[in-house]
Amino acid sequence: MIVASDDTIFSDALRRLDKAFQFADVDPEVILRLKYPKATMQVAIPVRMDDGSLRVFEGYRVRYDDSRGPGKGGIRFHPSVSLGEVKALAFWMTCKCAVMGIPFGGAKGGVTVNPKELSRLELERLSRGFIRQIADFIGPDRDIPAPDVYTNAMIMGWMMDEYSKLSGQRVPAVITGKPIPLGGSLGRDDATGRGAYYCIKEFESRKGWVPGEMRVAVQGFGNAGQSVAQLLYADGYKIVAVSDSQGGIHNEDGFDIPSLAYMKNESRRLEAVYCNGALCETINADRLTNEELLKLDVDILIPAAMENQITIENAEQIKAHVIVEVANGPITSQADEILNKNGKIIIPDILANAGGVTVSYFEWVQNKAGYYWPLDEVHSKLRAIMTREFGNIYDLMQKYECDMRTAAYVLALTRINEAISAHGTDRYFSGND
Ligand code: GLU
């Protein structure tokens, strides 16, 4: 993995603003405001380990912008978490919530840790410890966390419980992505992958793709990567390569995705298998690295792992025609230029992976109302929003003859501009309006 230095990723993320500003009719004050996170918190989390020793972990929460509503965004547990990365992720959340038209600003959190090295009890202590440290910074109407890389529903449940203890009352709406019995929403678990799938279906109908002829490679076989692969597989798409952090497998005949997912989730390993019930047999597949997977000659490439995967170093070698950014920030701004020049279509992260936060919004609404929706209602409401915003972005792309990412940022900026301008900007106060 290519790791960008702490603030490089953040300044790279901001470059997209300047590009979109050329097209969007927004007040320059809005761009100025969006270059700075509104509030940043850095904490130390002491954790008693199982062997009696003490370790201190570093954590962050950034509330980037709340002009459209309370901050919203996940918490990741990963060894490469840094303040610069969390700022970039919080900025992307701001744009993502605006693109979806949901009433939230953007935020993000993270702890620098490899959770795979912790026992379950250590993980629980760390999760609760982090929430104790940021409890005054978050809240159901201030900033609402959710899962992200290497965090899950159980961790969200611990966090909600810890916050509720501190508040002296149950506060389910402080966090989303919780287990269903603790106030989670049906359909939140596969929402990120499902949103990306709905975007692909929109392209399919506009371009007349035949699913059985479409070859797909998925980098990252975690929650989102698995969900989008499962849904595409069920429609007849051929998933010819998948990978996890250890490396990948490739087979031109396509994989049986439910079997691969079963194996990965049971054993934490990715092997080419065919499973009949709990009986799995290993089948033939070529091994390949994550880097090789990105360069495969496929129709659709789905980076669903981490940021900075396609950079100036490998962008020229990308052969896929369509790239669907299920991860946040997998393509740098310089790589974008090269891919655009080479005629690649990129469905940008702030649209493609926005299904997760959209169903998080549904969960928050259900928590506030105390009234829970059936799964088909969640799916149809998600599909309606994804389809509507995909269409808005597609139209902007044609109107401005720009790439899809720029069109998505134009849409985000237009909506953030509306909220900020409603309080008055220089144009209003200086009487030039
Ligand atoms: N972590 C997810 C994202 O990057 C979901 C955020 C949320 O549900 O608030 O979009």
CATH topology-level name of the domain at 193-352:
Rossmann fold
Order of helix and strand elements from N to C terminus: HHEEEEHEHEHHEHEEHEEEHEEHEHHHHH
Mean pLDDT: 94
Largest sheet, described in full? 7 strands, mixed
CATH homologous superfamily annotation of the domain at 193-352: NAD(P)-binding Rossmann-like Domain
Bound ligand species? glutamic acid
Supply Rg.
21 Å
CATH architecture of the domain at 193-352: 3-Layer(aba) Sandwich
Q: Which bin fits the share of residues in helices?
A: 40-55%
In CATH's first tier, which class of the domain at 193-352 applies?
A: Alpha Beta
Strand content: 15-25%
Terminus-to-terminus distance: 49 Å
Strand order of the largest sheet: 12-9-8-7-13-14-15
Number of beta strands? 15
SS-based structural class? alpha/beta
Tell me the overall shape: globular
Folded structure, characterized:
This protein has about 425 residues and is an alpha/beta fold. Among the domains are: about 130 residues, Rossmann fold (3-Layer(aba) Sandwich); about 160 residues, 3-Layer(aba) Sandwich (Rossmann fold). About 45% of the residues lie in helices and about 15% in strands. The chain is built from 15 helices and 15 strands. The strands form 4 sheets. It has a 7-stranded mixed β-sheet with strand order 12-9-8-7-13-14-15. The protein has a 4-stranded mixed β-sheet with strand order 1-2-5-4. The chain has a two-stranded parallel sheet with strand order 3-6. Helix 4 packs across helix 5. The protein is globular and about 70 Å long. The model has no long low-confidence stretch (mean pLDDT about 95). The site of glutamic acid (GLU) has 12 residues, from helix 12.
